[in-house]
Design brief:
Helices cover 71% and strands 0% of the residues. It has one domain (7-192). It has nine helices and no strands. It has helices at residues 7-15, 28-34, 38-67, 76-98, 100-106, 110-114, 117-128, 133-162, 173-188. Helix 3 runs parallel beside helix 7. The chain is globular and about 60 Å long. The protein has 197 residues and is mostly helical.
């Protein structure tokens, strides 16, 4: 366990200085493709935060109560991926039963989350850094919030860019990638304040 990192500091660090998306560049595919619309970006951000937190906690429990005691850590990648896929599938079924309106809003985004590499990345960081349960909760929830903050920010910036005179050669993916680069620089600028590693 890593007792020297306070969970509250880890929460804020994972949102800003160790942003899973803008400092580790995990989860870029769905980030770029869904960030054109604010409502879609908000829905995906919420879904990623919930799934990221749930799967990291379940993977922590599976690792500490099944894989380590049975000396099966060699299978951790496969198990983590199975947990992620099963959690997303169960969450999709629960939301469909409890709130069909929310399912219609998030239903499109939930299958995308299964293949979001940020979800597996957080589970692997949790394992590599040997986080305890509270640290895993803080890190996974903070990483989800950081991902959500980044996609909302990009959606807002792209809304402004849509009305701006962008040169023809930079329209579309070009200006999006440049914007993401500037956003990453801004988030990395926080790195002197808090550190996750």
């Amino acid at each position: 366990m890593t007792p020297q990192i306070n969970p509250l500091i880890l929460l804020f660090a994972s949102i800003f200085t160790g942003n899973i998306l803008l400092t580790n560049f995990l989860g870029l595919c769905s980030f770029i493709s869904i960030s054109r619309d604010m409502k879609s970006a908000n829905g995906l951000g919420l879904a990623v935060t919930v799934v990221l937190t749930l799967t990291a906690l379940i993977n922590w429990a599976v690792m500490h109560y099944i894989l380590i005691p049975l000396n099966l850590m060699v299978y951790r990648y496969i198990v983590f991926i199975i947990v992620i896929a099963a959690t997303v599938q169960m969450l999709e079924m629960i939301i469909d039963r409890v709130s069909p309106a929310l399912y219609m809003t998030l239903g499109i985004f939930l299958p995308l989350i299964t293949v979001n590499c940020a979800i597996l990345g957080v589970a692997l960081f949790m394992q590599i850094r040997n986080y305890g349960l509270l640290q895993t909760l803080a890190f996974s929830f903070g990483s989800g919030l950081g991902w959500w903050l980044a996609i909302i920010a990009l959606a807002a910036i792209q809304k402004k860019i849509a009305r701006a005179p962008v040169p023809a050669g930079l329209q579309g993916p070009g200006i999006t990638l440049i914007t993401i680069g500037f956003m990453a620089l801004a988030f990395i600028g926080f790195s002197g304040m808090l550190n996750v590693s």
